[in-house]
Amino acid sequence: MSRSVASTYPLIRMRIAIAGKGGTGKTTIAGTLARVLARGSREVLAIDADSNPNLASVLGIPPSKAQEIVGLPRSLMQRITSEDGTTKAVFSADPEDVLRKFGVVGPDGVRLMVMGKVGHGGAG
Amino acid sequence: MCGAHATVRGFLGEIVARAESDRHIIVDMEAGLEHLSRGTGRHVSRLVAVLEPYYRSMETARNVATLASELGISDVVVVANKVRDEGDRTAIADFCRAHAMQLVSEVPFDSGLAVVERSGGAPIDAAPGSPAVQAVIALASRLSQPAVTA
Question: Is there a contact between A81 and A87 (Cβ–Cβ < 8 Å)?
Fold first, then answer.
């Protein structure tokens, strides 16, 4: 059994979604996994896409800082009209800018983005 | 149309699909995987379905696995959480076998962790040596390998 993930394995780039029934401890596992991986060679982006977001506390981000996190404004989506007259909404911002602006950095350098707060300010 | 929902979908789609970034991405999602579109699903390298040793939780994980494969996520694995004893272990192993789900790791029930979580702290800071945190460290190395084998 390895003690240090970082030094034992050449880390492939992971894009992992973690899901399960509420209360299963998926957030505890997701947050702890993010912290462990962040001690390796790559930056870790943790995204809280739960409607009851609490990944921040598992990551060790203090409540005062977690409260400052704001969700993504809907203005990031832009309605475009194509030549045949149909419209669709497309994500119009640079995702890296969005990360810098709306993400917070916690212990071990894990960057957290919270999605679930989106829309709290208005009708969904 | 729900604008908030579309924004989340849009952002996830952009960030997960980004080929030039080399960061790891961990997304904590609801069981319905509502925020993943089919296009985004293809860029998710692995879905981890977390379950507990009781029927409804295992059924939810099974639904998650089905949804994930419909979204084009080819690599779906199961992590059993809060496992207390051999009975739990057997129930989960039987369920996974019956539904062709790949169980890759087990995290033990850990009363110390419950104490930490009540106070709102990070388990890895407050209880780094606890059995559950150690199990997640082991899980991380398991997931770090390109192909997870049971």
Answer: yes
